[in-house]
Here is the input.
Amino acid sequence: MKRGLLLIDRGSREREASEELEFICSKVKDNGDYVFTDFCFLEVEPPYIEDGIQKSLKQKIESLTIVPYFLYPGKKVKLAVSNVMKFQKDTDVKFLVTKPMSMHKILVSLVENRIAASLKKNGISTSKKNIDVLIIGHGSKDPNAQMSLNYVINGLQETYRNVSRCFLEIEKPDIFEGIKNCERDDPEVLVIVFYFLHEGAHVKTDINNDLKPALENSNLNKVCITKHLGTDEKMIDLIIERAKEVENAN
Here is the structure.
């Protein structure tokens, strides 16, 4: 069967986000069994979902695997899926919709990759049991989003001394509180994980507006900051794994 794959991202005006999605689609096409891969955006700017679907249906494919490219399940994922399925009735191409990028062991491995890369970059070599980890997430009112982040934290807790979290907005603790909480645990090394898919405005600007003053006012000694999740090979693996779950069931 000739398959296509379409990523649906929330949307960003940052050039880096589109460049990352282009790279990811290229790698998924190379590593997966697809004749066509592309991305579109739920909101913010084109290509929107309608653009992505129309382009996909012009390809010589029999089925289209649609991947909600979101770290958390919730309203945005549901909206993306409902918008996509409006087009199913007008085509013989079969739509298969995957789960989002959450609640999977590959995601835990991806975060560990980011932690290891940050430690290496900073020339730090010590037992993982001496390392504290602080994950900075976006924040959401949806309990499913909290469950998704808990899955990653639980997956890391056996490996590192302490694993905690804070949020850019919406939820507590905020970034200032998160740093204060870590400070009380007196870590030998603190690794801060940017738990975001893209190098968008949140990663480039918004987090640092709070994180830099919070660190400057702390007594933390060794602090490493990871890259966002981005284009790690594990993310490519996760997308293909999610796709195969629905493809093998149909």
The mean pLDDT is 95. The radius of gyration is 19 Å.
